[in-house]
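In the current project phase, we have settled on a layout for protein records. One protein thus recorded is set out beneath this paragraph:
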Amino acid sequence: MAASTAVTVFLSLLLFPLLRPAAAPAPPPPPSPAPPAPDGCAGQIVLLSPCLPYVSSPPNDLASSAPPLCCAALSFARRSGLVSCLCYLVRERAMLGFPLNSTRLRSLPSDCSLTDAADSPRRNATVELDSLCSVRISGSASV
């Protein structure tokens, strides 16, 4: 009798999963995080932190114009060839954990009167962030 009880319990445990109704499908996986910025951009983005009061979305937009320290940092980044790191902030505006104002972010070079003195035909022409973002970064595709 004990053997038949053991067999019954064993078969019940074996067949129980087959008798249960099908479970609901698993929820879709969460969206993957934004791709990381290329090496060197983390420091560059930190360098541009004086711009945050201007380029942050409300209620964090504490400045109505680009602060002088922001423009100095942007100018340094342009001379260093690292301003293209801003492109990641344009594409992934929540990368910092809070939203950024893309209009102000894109207009930052002109708001800071950043000029392009590279070629004489365009000498002193205002640099647009969109044109800077078309530059290749560290051998990767255009951003």
Remarks:
- DSSP finds seven helices and two strands in the chain.
- The two ends are 75 Å apart (CA to CA).
